[in-house]
Structures are given as C-alpha cells and as structure tokens.
Write a structure and sequence with these properties.
An eight-stranded antiparallel β-sheet has the order 17-18-19-23-24-25-26-27, covered by helices on one side. It is extended, with a radius of gyration of 29 Å. By secondary structure, the chain is mostly beta strands. The protein is 9% helix and 55% strand. It has five helices and 27 strands. A hairpin with a 2-residue loop joins strand 8 and strand 9.
Length: 461
C-alpha cells in the first residue's frame, strides 16, 4: 500500500513539474500576418514579466519551457492596439495552442485628445532587446546589479560578472559612453537602479564597422544604460559604511554630476575586512598584463599575484577569485570618470583610477611525524606584509572630420609599485623536547620598484 502511495505522489509531482509550450499566430483585421511583434507573458497577480518572444516572418510564435501556471499574454505591435489574453493551461496539457490571434487598428477620437501612456516591459528593436527599468521593482537603495538580476535572460554571478542571452557581457556603457573604462562591474555596482530608464542589450560592432558600414564580423556583448531625464542633468549618488569589533570598517562612495554634454563621476572605497571592492578585471588592467596565474595557498582557490618589476612574485598583493584570502587585506581605491562632448564632431572619454592593497599574513604550522623509534614535532611561524600601489589613466579622443573620415586617439598609462617583507622561524623537537634541528629566523625585504606602461595608438577611418 505504501509503495502505491509513493507511486501516486511521484506521478503527481512529475505531472506538476511538466513544462508547457504556448504557441499561436498573429494576424491583423485584414488577415495579414504580423512579423516581429513583441509577446510578453506576465504574472496575472502582479503583472511582472515572466518570459518574452517575438513572432517570426509569418506571424507564428512559440514560447517553450514554461512552468505550469496561469499567464497573461500581452502583445504589442506598432500601429495596432495592444492585445491581451489570459492563458489557463488545462490539466495534463503540455502544448497550449492559441490559434489565430487578431489585432485591430488603434482607435482614434478626433473631437477630443486623450493621451494614455503605457510602456511595455520589454521591446525588441532589430538586434536590440530593451527593458523598461521601472517595470522591474527593486529596493529603494538598489544598484544596477540588483536591477539586472530581475531581467529575464540576464544572470549576475557572485563575482559581479554578467551573462546575457548565454554570452558574457564585456562592456556596460552609460548613455552610449564608457564608464570608468571597459569594466562592466564598475557601472553596475555603483550606479543606482532608480536612475535607469532603459536597459539595452545588443551585440556591439567594432568601431571601424560602425563608421564604415562594412560588417567585419566582430561582436561584443554590450549593455547600455539609458538614464532617466531627471538624472541626465543633476547630482546623484550613494554612500554606505560600517564599523565593527576589532576596529574593522568598510565604506563606499559614489557621486555623479551629469549634464547634457558632460558626465563627471567619482568613486571611492576603503575597508580592512578582505573585500576587494572593485573587480578583478580592473586589477588586471592596472598591471598592464604583467599578472601571473598561480595556485592558492591554503585558500582552495586560484589567486592572481601582481609582479611589479619582473622580480619575485611573493611580494605582490594577492586577489582571490571568489574565495576568502588568508590573512588581512586592506583595500583602498578611488577614481574619477570624465566624458565631454565638445561638439557634434569632437568627444572625449577619460578616467583615472587608483588602488592600494595591503596584505598582512601570519601563519603557524604544527606537524607531528610518526616513526617507529619515536615521533617528532615540527613547528614553524611565518609572517608576510606586502603593499601594492596602482595608478591607471585612460583617454579616448574622437574627432569626426566629415561623414567619410574620422580620427580616434586611444591612450592608456599604468603605474604599479610593490613592496614586501617576510620572516620565518622553524624548529623540530623529539617527544622528550630535545631539539633535532632549529632554523634561525630568516627575513627578507623586497622593494620591487615601479612598472610603468604607456600605450597610445591612432585609428583613422
């Protein structure tokens, strides 16, 4: 009897977990198919977006892998009235066939003017998917990263990296302009969600292809953040901080001043609780490609060690990929981003970034070795303190001579300076306390000097 009961429960759970597919065809009142119409499946309770799609060239659509639940179908098409229909899947039904859905012309009333504004949560414009940010509710003090987590098809990892439509997002721009270089996480983790009007996801072409109109096949998954009008001309920002036991503290500040033809932003952070407040990608840019990948010691993860002058790598400040570092890491960083449109032909995008990492590591090792003639005990104490300073400057000056010619100057300067000091003391004792071997304390001081890198190149189209 119990086996039969378990079987019935299993069958019921399996049936409830079955996915469904919604399909149909869109036509207008003249029986003409409607290609590239935007279809949205909303939660009937709160109208939140669950999934979306577009119709093909003959008006057919199909939305797969949906959980068995009720949905509100909403269809929009330019020049036609918005179509809505409640979808209620029947028990055991895996394909919900809606048949032909007809959309009618939007009615107009000439004797009076009535304006009703209703913005769709998602709009598909050729190769761009645009999300209307206010349709996705976030907390009062949420940042853009929290907003992106609400968007269907967008995933944000614990380290802040972003995946959209199954591809890694390589760049996030603000109103079409770079924000503190090409690191996506600086924009998503420091801009407030309430400042965003639209989130646009698209495959960005190369500069040369964009200017010449000749597709070279190069693509870069990009997210563009369109600001609300009230944030395009004014101040906005946020600040967080905390203080705890053992003099532990953390703080972060983001402040922006945007005008019609100018963007000015400041970032600052500091803590001694082992948080690397800005991204690992940014640290890689600081060193100008002189990083080395190496296995972590005791942390179970991969670490990145900065080597400033080509010497020993033990002196570099270490950054952990998602795992907590041994020892205490103090991190201080700050920067300024400045974009200016001098005219329709001349634009400047520039930023400066500073980072200071201090790593204080003390380790004690106690090991017992088992032998037939008696056990031995090995004790070791070691300490290490390393400091790494980084400066980075980026600038892009773009001048459009005319409709057929353009000059683009890109320049990058990085400076890295690292210092370290380390000491070790070890000894081996017998069970009776007799010292078999004792190594005197050893210490080393390394000042790895400076590593400067300057790159500058022209692009003439």
């Amino acid at each position: 009897m119990k086996k039969l009961l378990y079987l019935l429960v299993f069958i019921s759970a399996t049936a409830g977990a079955q996915k469904i597919t919604v399909k149909g065809r869109l036509l207008d009142d003249t029986n003409t198919s409607l290609p590239s119409a935007t279809l949205m499946l909303l939660n009937p309770v709160d109208s939140s977006l669950v999934n979306f799609s577009i119709s093909n060239g003959e008006g057919y659509f199909e939305i797969k892998n949906l959980s068995r639940a009720n949905y509100l179908l909403k269809v929009t098409y330019v020049g036609l009235a918005t179509f809505t229909q409640l979808i209620e899947p029947k028990e055991g039904e895996t394909v919900v066939e809606l048949g032909e859905l007809r959309m009618v012309q939007q009615s107009k009333q000439l004797n009076e003017l009535v304006v009703q504004a209703e913005k769709a949560p998602v709009t598909i414009k050729k190769d761009t998917i645009e999300f209307y940010a206010p349709s996705f509710k976030t907390k009062e003090n949420a940042n853009v990263e929290d907003l992106l987590k609400k968007l269907p098809g967008v995933e944000v990892e614990s380290d802040g990296s972003i995946t959209a439509q199954g591809e890694q997002v390589q760049q996030v721009t603000v109103d079409g302009k770079e924000f503190f270089g090409r690191d996506p996480k600086i924009a998503t983790q420091n801009l407030p969600a309430k400042a965003i009007e639209n989130v646009q996801i698209f495959d960005k072409k190369s500069d040369q292809a964009t200017f010449s109109g000749i597709d070279d096949g190069q693509r870069q998954k990009t997210i563009n953040l369109e600001l609300k009008e009230e944030f395009k001309n004014g101040f906005f920002g946020n600040a967080t901080g905390g203080y705890g036991t053992d003099d532990r503290y953390t703080g972060r500040l983001s402040l922006s001043r945007f005008k019609k033809n100018q963007q000015l932003s400041f970032l600052a952070m500091g803590n001694n609780i082992n948080e690397q407040g800005f991204s690992i990608d940014d640290y890689m840019n600081f060193t100008g490609g002189s990083q080395q990948m190496m296995g972590g010691r005791g942390g179970g993860g991969v670490r990145l060690t900065f080597n400033a002058g080509g010497g020993s790598t033990t002196g570099g400040a270490q950054v952990n990929f998602g795992n907590r570092l041994n020892g205490i890491m103090n991190n201080y960083a700050g920067g300024v981003n400045f974009n200016q449109d001098f005219s329709k032909k001349t634009t400047l995008q520039s930023n400066y970034f500073y980072n200071q990492l201090e790593h204080d590591l003390s380790q004690v090792l106690e090991r017992e070795n088992f032998f037939e003639e008696g056990n031995t005990f090995f004790n070791q104490k070691s300490s290490q303190f390393s400091t790494n300073y980084n400066h980075r400057v980026n600038a892009i000056l773009d001048y459009k001579i005319d409709s057929a010619n353009s000059i683009k100057l890109t320049t990058t300067f990085t400076n890295n300076n690292a210092e370290s000091a380390a000491s070790t003391l070890s000894e081996t004792n017998s069970e009776t306390g007799e010292k078999y071997d004792q190594c005197p304390a050893t210490s080393s001081l390394s000042k790895e000097g400076k590593n400067n890198l300057h790159q500058s190149y022209f692009r003439i189209f």
